[in-house]
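TL;DR need C-alpha cells for one chain.
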Amino acid sequence: MPRSATHSDTAPKAIGPYSQAIWAGDLLYCSGQTPIDPAVGTLIERDVEAQTHRCFDNLQAVVESAGLTMDDVIKCNVYLTDMANFAAMNRAYATRFSAPFPARTTVAVAGLPLGAAVEIELVAKRPG
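>> reply
TL;DR here they are.
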C-alpha cells in the first residue's frame, strides 16, 4: 500500500525526513510533535504542562487538516524526559480528551529533539 501523507501549514514543519502524518487505510498515524511554536519555529520555554498543551495544539492542527477531530484519536504515546513531570503532563492531557479516553503509553526517554521535555504522537481513525 503506498503511503499517503497529510500535513498542516499551521503545525511545525518536519525537522527531518518524515511526514507530519500518514494515512494507512482508515488510520492516521501522526508523527511525534514537540512543543515548537509554529509561528516562530522555536521550542516554547515553559513548564511541562504548557509544553504538553503546545504538543497537542500542533497535533490537533495535523488531525484537523486530515478532516478528523481529536475525538477520533484512538491511541497516544507520550515521551517525557523526566517522569517527575508526569502529573503536570497528565493535567494538560486530561483537558484534551473526553471519555472514553484514547489508549495511552507514557515512557521516559533520555532526551528529545531541541531539548523538549515532552513529545507526543498519536493515531486517529476515520469514523464509519
